[in-house]
């Protein structure tokens, strides 16, 4: 079913079930976001994609990644109010991830070059403040795309963090690195060294399998998982792997 | 237990009960067995009464009831004689023989344990004479005084399940009409009209619908819902059955904190009773309507009081709110239409259905009809549970019902609406308490928490306290709520600890706007109320912290100094009690505090009988 509404006054059409952010981007409207990826379920954690939506005469500021399109709504993607509030969100995030390029760049676009909430000069990032902005992309990618569910959020409020169960090394992690690829702040730390695949944030290290030609390929758990999911022959990777 | 197979059978059972119970109230003693009174030994008082009845041969002549909360927790254990509503306060087992002798054997009153007017010394024997009770409108709480919470017959004899009978008689359409006309607004804090909610849920296309009772009462110091569940679980159950019948649901949940063991126990017993009596389960009252209620115990996360987080928790997922662009009445629990109301709302439903919307809307204000239960705590004389007509002023609640500020100190502020409510100053005391007015004044009704504060309360410290609570209780999903509240707490701490400048206050306001506008659920959007309302009404106090580095109320430790003045008689008590041993002095000479070692614990001030310890 087609849903009709407007974005910045422009009439648009979408399929029911689509999110406003996807439709807006399709029509060329820019809306920043850090926790959204079209491959996974919208979550609405980072709050950067704030827009104004008028529905039934009532105007409300809301995130648009987790807002399903509705007939007749009016979406405004940028104005002074939106700009100011996005800037504050980015200032909060910049304090958490001062070295993450994506955040630094986006914050600068909103006029935020330093965070008034930042730690005093010289303080090193601690374990809990390693640049992670708790957007949950790693959790959702691991669960929905890789279908392993090795990661989850732990605790709540200002103590919230992300990792394996009870913040221990996730024993079912196949070290595929999809989480590191999805991470907007590059805080997971993906590395291949001395025959090992290392995911630093999860404290997960798995030995790499090699191709017949002696090229490092991937950890055995990952290969086995791929064979299972893609229904490949059991010796698929032994024959030299994908070419 | 009788199983009622029709509405008529229920009615005739009630009539039979009334005939036999007619004289029961004449010889009944009600002992408050709510959580507050239990904590000060109500169970022992009940035992003492039993023993004393046995001694006087009264076991069969006098009926003893352990009831739900009678409200005036400050003066527990409370004992009431329902015949003429005489109330005795601060009853301990030792006082029981006197009451039995004077009130029951001699048929008079035990004068020593009655309330007295603090000014005139006149006795205030009955509820009508005691200002705490007389100024209330106890629509719901009255039942607490009349019934044994887990006696179904008691509940039926005071008109219980009449609402359900009426609902069956008039049918779902008319129930919806009455509910909409009554404009009963959600007592959990949202204030959304229940009738409209019910209608949307009923009209949402689905083969399955749920009703839920939100009993995840989590505001610090609030116990309205606990007292209803403990004192009259059947009111809540009846409301839920009516709701389920009206919207076409066959499955209900009560989501209740596991920290409420007494409520869970009584609710469990009450559910067993109604199942055995044909009021719950299959073919309710022979109508062919099936409905059952399950209890779901929550783990104690504050955020699980938010409806979508609550439903996620029932589903076995992490209690995290989701966006409500599609309402839960359309897609809630297990993605099915779900009607959620809180304990007090459900408990009010039977009364509205039985007596009609016109009766209900006579009470309260136009926008907020009916009554509301408040848990009145803080620096008032009568801490406890009060039920006020909507539109009563803050002054009536705090001074008439609450008996004014403790120790005769000046009133400074009242915080309404729980941890995310706002603080209103003295010049707002005559504001009528209803959903819209409180909201417009920068506070909110919430679920009915009310904390009164005196001049020794620092408003910066209050804001810091609630932010500290909320930063821990936020689920942590939204940046604005998780980081925003944490940073607000950090900034307000900067003020309280003397590190702030006037720019800090501007930054607080900037950040608060985004926390409010940018957060997903009501926990985040309302978290800024304590800090914004105190900044609005008590800006001078913030400025004193910022500019003068002083805490006028003498609370913020970093900004105060303890000093002993010439009132000191040299009694040595403070010197002996000081844990840091930083008070020097000899007998009959003025003592001196070594401020370099003083940790400002305040013990010296507490123990001084001569008002010699000052803070500045």
Structural features, described:
Chain A has 243 residues and is α+β, with helices and mostly antiparallel strands. Chain A has three domains: 2-78, Ubiquitin-like (UB roll); 81-116, no CATH class; 137-230, Alpha-Beta Plaits (2-Layer Sandwich), CATH 3.30.70. Helices cover 24% and strands 21% of the residues of chain A. Chain A is built from six helices and eleven strands. In chain A, strands 2-1-5-3-4 form a five-stranded mixed beta sheet, sandwiched between helices. In chain A, helix 2 packs antiparallel against helix 3. The termini of chain A are far apart. With 616 residues, chain B is an alpha/beta fold. Chain B has five domains: 22-132, Glutaredoxin; 156-361, NADH-ubiquinone oxidoreductase 51kDa subunit (Rossmann fold, 3-Layer(aba) Sandwich), CATH 3.40.50; 371-454, Ubiquitin-like (UB roll), CATH 3.10.20; 459-547, NADH-ubiquinone oxidoreductase 51kDa subunit, iron-sulphur binding domain (de novo design (two linked rop proteins)), CATH 1.20.1440; 561-615, Alpha-Beta Plaits (2-Layer Sandwich). Chain B is built from 25 helices and 19 strands. In chain B, helix 8 crosses helix 9 (194-203), helix 10 (224-231) packs parallel to helix 12 and helix 19 (479-496) runs antiparallel to helix 20 (502-518). Chain B is globular and about 80 Å long. The model of chain B has no long low-confidence stretch (mean pLDDT 93). Classes of the chains: A alpha+beta (243), B alpha/beta (616). Chains A and B meet through strand 4 and helix 2 of A and helix 18, helix 19 and helix 20 of B.
């Amino acid at each position: 079913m087609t849903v009709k509404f407007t974005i910045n006054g422009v009439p648009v059409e979408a399929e029911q079930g689509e999110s406003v952010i996807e439709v807006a981007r399709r029509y060329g409207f820019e809306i920043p976001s850090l926790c959204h990826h079209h491959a996974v379920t919208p979550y609405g954690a980072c709050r950067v994609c704030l827009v104004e939506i008028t529905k039934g005469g009532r105007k409300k500021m809301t995130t648009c990644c987790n807002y399903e399109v509705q007939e007749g709504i009016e979406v405004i993607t940028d104005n002074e109010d939106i700009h100011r509030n996005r800037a504050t969100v980015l200032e909060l995030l910049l304090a958490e991830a001062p070295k993450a390029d994506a955040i630094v760049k986006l914050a600068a676009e909103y006029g935020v070059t330093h965070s008034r909430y930042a730690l005093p000069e010289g303080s090193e990032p601690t374990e809990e403040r390693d640049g992670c902005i708790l957007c949950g992309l790693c959790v959702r990618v691991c669960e929905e795309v890789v279908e392993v569910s090795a990661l989850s959020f732990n605790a709540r409020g200002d103590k919230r963090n992300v990792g394996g169960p009870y913040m221990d090394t996730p024993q079912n992690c196949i070290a595929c690195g999809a989480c590191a690829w999805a991470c907007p702040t590059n805080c997971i730390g993906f590395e291949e060294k001395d025959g090992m695949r290392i995911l630093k944030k999860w404290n997960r290290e798995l030995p790499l399998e090699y191709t017949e030609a002696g090229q490092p390929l991937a950890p055995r758990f990952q290969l086995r998982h791929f064979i299972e999911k893609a229904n490949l022959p059991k010796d698929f990777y032994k024959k030299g792997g994908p070419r | 237990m009788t199983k009622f197979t029709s509405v008529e059978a229920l009615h005739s059972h009630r009539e039979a009960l009334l005939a036999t119970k007619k004289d029961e109230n004449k010889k009944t003693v009600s002992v408050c067995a709510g959580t507050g009174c239990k904590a000060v030994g109500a169970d022992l008082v009940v035992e003492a009464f039993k023993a004393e009845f046995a001694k006087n041969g009264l076991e069969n002549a006098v009926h003893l009831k352990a009831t739900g909360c009678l409200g005036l927790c400050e003066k527990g254990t409370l004992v009431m004689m329902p015949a003429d509503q005489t109330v005795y306060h601060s009853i301990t087992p030792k006082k029981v023989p006197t009451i039995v002798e004077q009130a029951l054997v001699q048929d008079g009153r035990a004068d020593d344990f009655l309330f007295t007017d603090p000014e005139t010394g006149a006795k205030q024997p009955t509820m009508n004479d005691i200002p705490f009770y007389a100024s209330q409108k106890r629509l719901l709480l009255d039942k607490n005084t009349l019934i044994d919470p887990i006696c179904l017959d008691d509940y039926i004899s005071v008109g219980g399940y009449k609402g359900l009978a009426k609902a069956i008689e008039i049918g779902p359409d008319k129930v919806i009409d009455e509910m909409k006309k009554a404009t009963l607004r959600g007592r959990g804090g949202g204030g959304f009209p229940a009738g409209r909610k019910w209608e949307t849920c009923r009209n949402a296309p689905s083969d399955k619908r749920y009703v839920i009772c939100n009993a995840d009462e989590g505001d610090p110091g609030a116990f309205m819902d606990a007292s209803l569940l403990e004192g009259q679980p059947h009111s809540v159950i009846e409301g839920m059955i009516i709701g389920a019948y009206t919207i076409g649901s066959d499955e209900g949940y009560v989501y209740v904190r596991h920290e409420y063991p007494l409520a869970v126990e009584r609710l469990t017993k009450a559910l067993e009773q109604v199942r055995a009596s044909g009021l719950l389960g299959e073919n309710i009252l022979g109508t062919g309507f099936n409905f059952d209620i399950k209890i779901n115990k929550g783990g104690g996360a504050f955020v699980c009081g938010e409806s979508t987080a609550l439903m996620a928790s029932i589903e076995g997922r992490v209690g995290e709110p989701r966006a409500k662009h599609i309402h839960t009445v359309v897609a809630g629990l297990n993605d099915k239409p779900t009607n959620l109301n809180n304990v007090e709302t459900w408990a009010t439903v039977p009364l509205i259905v039985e007596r009609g919307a016109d009766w209900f809307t006579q009470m309260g204000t136009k926008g907020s009809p009916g009554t509301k239960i408040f848990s009145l705590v803080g620096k008032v004389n009568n801490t406890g549970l009060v039920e006020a007509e909507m539109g009563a002023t803050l002054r009536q609640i705090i001074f008439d019902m609450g008996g004014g500020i403790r120790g005769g100190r000046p009133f400074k502020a009242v915080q309404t609406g729980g941890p995310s409510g706002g603080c209103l100053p003295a010049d707002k005391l005559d504001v009528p308490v209803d959903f819209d007015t409180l909201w417009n004044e920068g506070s909110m009704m919430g679920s009915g928490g009310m904390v009164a504060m005196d001049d020794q309360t620092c408003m910066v410290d209050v804001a810091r306290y609630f932010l500290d609570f909320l930063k821990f209780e936020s689920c942590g999903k939204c940046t604005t709520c998780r980081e925003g509240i944490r940073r607000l707490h950090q900034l307000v701490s900067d003020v309280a600890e003397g590190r702030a400048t006037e720019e800090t206050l501007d930054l607080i306001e900037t950040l608060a706007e985004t926390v409010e506008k940018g957060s997903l659920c009501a926990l985040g959007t309302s978290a800024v109320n304590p800090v914004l309302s105190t900044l609005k009404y008590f800006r001078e106090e913030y400025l004193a912290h910022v500019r003068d580095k002083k805490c006028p109320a003498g609370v913020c430790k970093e900004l105060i100094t303890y000093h002993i003045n010439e009132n000191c008689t040299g009694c040595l008590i403070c010197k002996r009690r000081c844990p840091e041993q930083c008070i020097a002095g000899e007998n009959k000479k003025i003592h001196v505090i070594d401020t370099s070692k003083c940790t400002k614990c305040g013990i010296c001030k507490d123990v001084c009988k001569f008002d010699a310890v000052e803070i500045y």
